[in-house]
Structures are given as C-alpha cells and as structure tokens.
Amino acid sequence: MAHRFCVEVPENDEPIDLVDHHGADRYHGWWMLATLSEQLDGAWSGLMPEDSTWRQAQRQEQGRDAFALQHYMDTILGMPIDPLTLGKWLASNPSVATWMELVEALRALRATAPQRFAMEGGEP
C-alpha cells in the first residue's frame, strides 16, 4: 500500500453498528483509514494481501463478482462518509486531534520519502 498499511472488512461479516457511539467511531475510523491508506484506489488495492476480503471484492478476485464490494458497503461497512457527515464528525469528535496527527505524520512522510508513494512508473 502507498502508506504501508490497509484496513480490512470486519471479520465474520460483523456489521458496524452505527447507532452505538463506539460503532459510529468505528465506522468513521474505518473509512478514514481506508482513505488514508489509498486502498480505495484499485491500483493500490492490488498490493494488499491476496487473502484480503477488500482486495478480492474490489478487484473481483476469488470468485467475487461486481456486486461484492457493494454488498460489504450495504451490509457491513456502511456507505463511504459523505462530506456533510464528515464535517460534523470532525467538528464535534474529541478524537479528531489524533486523526490530524496521523494526517500530519503522513504528510511529513510524503515530503521526506516521495518515492515511497510513487506507483510503478508514475508520479506520487
């Protein structure tokens, strides 16, 4: 992965509970980390482990069809965070400072090691 980490679909197809406070944090966290890892880009998901549920669904491997990824979003992960929901979460959640530290660390890493983020033959 571009940042050398990825997040996986929850084990046992356990849906993320969006009603519970911790479930909402888990939902936001999953999508934030998936976005930061760049695994939402199919070009990077090919670098995920071959047994990754996300990789198999996104790349339609191991018998997964075109609807597999949509199934995970509809039943387990929830849909990607829309800008309005993300804005409300960022403005009201005390853990946002930690997220901002992570983003700053990734920016610093990109600045000091841009080659790490370049795709084969491409730009960072």
Features:
mainly alpha; 52% helix; 124 residues; 6 helices
Question: Domains counted in the coordinates: how many?
Answer: 1
Which band does the percent of strand residues land in?
under 5%
- Given helix and strand content, the structural type is mainly alpha
Query: Strand-and-helix sequence, N→C?
Result: HHHHHH
How would you state the average pLDDT, rounded? Answer: 81
Number of helices: 6
Low-confidence stretches: none
Question: Strands, helices and their partners?
Answer:
Blueprint: H1 21-37, H2 42-45, H3 53-59, H4 68-77, H5 83-92, H6 96-112
Structure description:
- The chain is an all-alpha fold and 124 residues long.
- 52% of the residues lie in helices and 0% in strands.
- It has six helices and no strands.
In a few lines, what is going on in this structure?
This protein has six helices and no strands. With 124 residues, it is mostly helical.
